[in-house]
Fold this protein.
Amino acid sequence: MINDVYNRRILELAADIPRLGRLDSPDATATAHSKLCGSTVTIDLSMKEGVVTDFAHEVRACALGQASSSIMADHVVGATADELREVRDVMRRMLKENGPPPEGRWAELAVLEPVRDYKARHASTLLTFDAVVDAIGQIKARQATEAAE
């Protein structure tokens, strides 16, 4: 039932998104957009030695995109590139392959588990993860280019 998806905790997360705005000089910026619903998330990411040191985002999304962005913003600083790629993959499997929800400090993402039954809502829920992984890829590519010079 759709009420399971838009439960009280999802709405609380969507109403109180931390780290809104933009960074003055991020290491990378990435935008993810859902053509299906029109939701868009733009993130700014700063990293040092493979660990996120700062993060900000603009979230123009439904409550599900807002809730996943809220959880991302709560936990992204201090996360490694590998950890963030892994949480994106776990979320994708949770929604699309009935996989288990993330564990550890990302366990709160389990609140989004009912979304798996609503395929049209998957893209907006995954936007923040896709944008963060895109930004990490930009940073890694730039570092590889700089190392080759």
Observations:
- The CA atoms of residues 24 and 123 lie 28 Å apart.
